[in-house]
Design brief:
single chain; Rossmann fold; 3-stranded mixed beta sheet; Ubiquitin-like (UB roll); 331 residues; 12 strands; alpha/beta
Length: 331
């Protein structure tokens, strides 16, 4: 990467990955470039690592981002966060042109030095596409061996277990499949199977008189945060919101005679989020006729019948199922 890049090199990495910082610093020194660390977490990790002796970077190799902006592009390397396409990260903001400290420009080489965590693929590739659109040359794991793992290998995990010699072992990082493999690894270094606990969310683990045992299971579920409320949004409300976001809403207003439920005027139909670019007038005109027919033969369940009739008709015409609400005013 350093041999081929003619402009600035911008490298995204996890802020906690100290070894990658050292690799970048070493490469920058060999190619006569200065390194600027950007982002609070990246800068803090760099400073603490240097103070504790985990990073060996000469003072003259490090510049501020303000200094880097005024230097010739071939003399600069910038390290920042955002390998997973997080919108609030430096790389995420660079891809949308909303970063305050500096911006992407044609000729930049951007390196994403880790492959997407499962579930992040869409945001990562969206960020890559935007960076290309802004003129950068993006290098990522699919096209070059730039990935570096921040996780321990199996042999390193074994070494840690040999050094600490725990009596009990509880793997805690990853999904169930990862926890099971980690537990099996602990068995291979001599930890008794009965002293290994693979837990799921809500499972209580107790230690009584120095002995480990499984406790009761605590009910757990997702807790929705909505504005200032925490946990007060039910799953039913979330399903309704999903339906609204997917197909919109249709409101039907009926003006009826108080004594005999006769329509006093044509049904009024309004929609939000249920856009029909073509033939919308014809569809709603036909829907009004369906409403009129349904009202004329309704028997005790007027609103429910109208909701069903309008919903079925709109689905038949558009293959969409908006939420249908019926209001009735009697005069």
């Amino acid at each position: 990467v350093f041999n081929q890049a003619n402009g600035r090199i911008i490298i995204a990495s996890f802020a906690s990955l100290v070894s990658r910082m050292q690799q970048v610093a070493n490469a920058a020194q060999r190619h006569n470039r200065k390194v600027a660390f950007v982002g609070a977490s990246m800068v803090d990790a760099m400073r603490i690592s240097r103070k504790l002796g985990y990073l060996d970077i000469p003072d003259e190799l490090i510049v501020s981002i303000e200094q880097a902006r005024s230097m010739p592009d071939p003399d600069v390397v910038i390290m920042c966060t955002g390998t997973q396409g997080e919108p609030s990260s430096i790389m995420g903001r660079l891809s949308t042109g909303t970063n305050r400290l500096f911006d992407i420009k044609p000729g930049d080489t951007v390196v994403l030095s880790s492959h997407p965590i499962p579930g992040n693929e869409e945001s990562v590739y969206r960020t890559i596409n935007r960076l290309f659109q802004r003129g950068a040359n993006v290098i990522y794991d699919n096209i070059a061996p730039v990935h570096v793992s921040g996780h321990a290998s199996q042999e390193e995990m074994k070494l840690l277990l040999h050094l600490t010699k725990p009596r009990y072992f509880v793997p805690i990082h990853g999904e169930i499949r990862h926890l099971k493999q980690h537990a099996h690894l602990a068995e291979t270094v001599g930890i008794l199977p009965e002293n290994i606990a693979t837990l799921e969310n809500g499972q209580v683990l107790e230690f009584v008189d120095g002995e480990m045992r499984m406790g009761e299971r605590v009910p757990t579920s997702y807790v929705f945060v909505d504005g200032s409320g925490v946990g007060d949004v039910s799953a039913e409300v979330m399903r309704e919101r999903e339906a609204l976001s997917r197909d919109g809403i249709v409101l039907v207003n009926l003006r009826l005679a108080r004594d005999n439920n006769r329509l006093l005027s044509d049904p009024e139909i309004l929609s939000k989020g249920f856009g029909i670019a073509q033939d919308s007038d014809e569809i709603f005109t036909a829907a009004r006729r369906k409403v009129t027919e349904t009202v004329s033969r309704a028997n005790g369940s007027l609103q429910k019948d109208v909701e069903q009739a309008v919903g079925d008709y709109l689905y038949g015409e558009t293959r969409r199922r908006p939420m249908v609400f019926v209001t009735v005013s009697r005069f």
